[in-house]
Structures are given as structure tokens and as C-alpha cells.
């Protein structure tokens, strides 16, 4: 998120954030996670952030508490 702020990238509203965990099992450290958020405009990839356009999807979210 820090790099997004430094590059003055505008986050869309609503944000529609998604986290995708790529590890096959639970890990305490060094988790391979991809965070997706809606942004405004098009931007160049950086060392730590890749920008991509994804197809629209329908999803369900639940809270197991």
C-alpha cells in the first residue's frame, strides 16, 4: 500500500478488495498472498506492484465468527 501512496494512485470507491492466498496450506510466515484493489486509471508496473485488468466476476463473502 505504501508504494500506491508514493505513486499517487487513486483508489476507486467502493474499493472491492480481494486477497488470494497462493500457499497450499496454512503458514505463519512468508505467506504468498496477492492483494487486489480497484484503482482509477492505468499505471506502469513497478518492482513490487503489478497492474492488471481482470474480468468481472460474481463472488460471495462470509464471516465465520
* E-strand count: 2
Strand order in space, largest sheet: 1-2
Principal-axis shape: globular
Strand content: 5-15%
- Uncertain runs with pLDDT below 50, 5 residues or more? none
Quick overview of this protein structure:
The chain is mainly beta.
What does this structure look like?
- The protein has 65 residues and is mainly beta.
- It has a domain at 2-36.
- Helix content is 8%, strand content 12%.
- The chain has one helix spanning 2-6; strands spanning 18-21, 33-36.
- A two-stranded antiparallel ribbon has the order 1-2.
- The protein starts with a helix and ends in a 29-residue tail after the last strand.
Can you tag this structure with a few keywords?
65 residues; mainly beta; two-stranded antiparallel sheet; 8% helix; 12% strand
List the topology elements.
Elements (H helix, E strand, L loop, with lengths): L1 H5 L11 E4 L11 E4 L29
Antiparallel strand pairs: 1-2
Amino acid at each position: 500500500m505504501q508504494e500506491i501512496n508514493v505513486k499517487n494512485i487513486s483508489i476507486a470507491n467502493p474499493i472491492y478488495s480481494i486477497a488470494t492466498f497462493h500457499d497450499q496450506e496454512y503458514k505463519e510466515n512468508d505467506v504468498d498472498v496477492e492483494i487486489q484493489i480497484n484503482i482509477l486509471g492505468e499505471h506502469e508496473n513497478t518492482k513490487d506492484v503489478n497492474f492488471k485488468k481482470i474480468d468481472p466476476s460474481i463472488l460471495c463473502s462470509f464471516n465465520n465468527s
